[in-house]
Amino acid sequence: MSRTMLMVGTRKGLWVGTADESRTEWDWTPPHFPMEEVYSVMLDPRGASPRLLAGCSSSWFGPQVRRSDDLGQTWEETPNGAICFPEEAQLPDGSPATLARVWQLTPGVEDGVVWAGTEPGAIFRSDDGGESFDLVRGLWDHPHRAEWNAGFGGQAFHTILPHPEDSASVLAALSTGGVYRTSDGGASWSPANEGIKAEFYPGERNYPEFGQCVHKVARDPMDPERLFLQNHGGVYRSDDGGSSWQDIAPGLPSEFGFAMVTHPRESNTAYTFPIADAGARWPVDGKARVCRTTDGGSSWEPLGEDSLPGGFYAAVMRDAMCTDDHEPAGLYFGGRNGTVWCSPDAGTTWSEIQTNLPDVLVVRAASID
Q1: What is the pLDDT of residues 160-177, one digit of tens each?
Q2: Distant-in-sequence, close-in-space partners of 26: CB < 8 Å, separation ≥ 6
Q3: Which stretches in the chain have pLDDT values below 50?
């Protein structure tokens, strides 16, 4: 019987929990990397043994991608942090580019490939399972980069979605810049924001070619051309791999939020965690709600009305919600109030499995033997 591993990255360290397929009783390791921000984590099952990666940032020693090949019992790090900007890389103001945080770690299609999204806004690629990374120059040298702005949390590539059937095709998103795509393995990139609103721009600029504040994008498991997107304002679906987007927010308590995930096996099924608005960054009416669509966004239903708490004035960040691949699928989220919630039945019932943690930034689940 396989077990479930849950990695919870916080503002002050990483917690790792394991449970059986019932996901009712959890065992937790002591915290890893105390006092380090953990913005990104990844479990890579493709090698001889699963590899864990964690994107950490220390106020003393800077950012580092750490790795473990024994499910977190021990960790290794790479000299100079695994991800470094080349000496000649400059920010638009001419100052040297230095890595602040690793916001995203995503397995590629090919064995050993790992993609990383960073702050400042850049994408790196590893061909050795996350031990070393190279800057993707086609995106770093893009003429739009000088006009990308920082969102409220910074300027970073927080979403990287390799196409499961085409290793040369990758979709990425950042705040504030929007969605970009490559079809040649990263040599060239094009914006893919048609139909996404940027309400903070005046008049006719509401739908610019780029500059949208995209919060998260998820891919449909059965139709890789179908994508779901949570924007700063608006929820969208694309049926053509990002070439165009349509609004699917009607029916939600709010169109603002950060998280967006899809069911691991069921097409047209996606989940989001609505937040009241940009000025009150907590759930509508202070009630924790996960909302689900099973018809591609034509309708939405709230989940866990009887088991999720009221008086919940904490946001769920863009990578702090995820699913696992069990049957039935598990659904998880972590709040900025340090609580972690689990539903072992795809959102019907919920229980609190961790509490009193630091600010939760990322939650990732996976099956392990």
Answers
A1: 999 999 999 999 999 889
A2: 6, 17, 18, 19, 342, 353, 354
A3: none
Strands 62-68 and 76-77, bridge-based pairing:
antiparallel
At 82, list the tokens.
Answer: 């695994």
**Cα 326 from Cα 125, distance rounded (Å):** 29
CB atoms within 10 A of CB 312: 19
Cα 126 from Cα 147, distance rounded (Å): 27
Three-state DSSP state, 293: strand
CA distance 25 to 36: 27
Q: Are 242 and 227 in contact (CB under 8 A)?
A: yes
C-alpha distances in angstroms, 177 versus 82, 144, 158? 25, 8, 11
CA torsion 3-47-74-60 (nearest 10°) is -110
Question: How far apart are alpha carbons 134 and 123 in whole angstroms?
Answer: 9
The answer to whether the Cα torsion of 237, 177, 173, 275 is positive or negative is: negative
Q: Phi first, then psi: what are they for 98, rounded to 5°?
A: -130, 140
Angle in degrees, CA 108, 244, 139, rounded to 5 = 45
Where does the chain have alpha helices with state H?
A: 137-140
Would you state the structure tokens that stand for residue 289, as one six-digit string? 């709600």
Q: State the pTM of this model.
A: 0.97
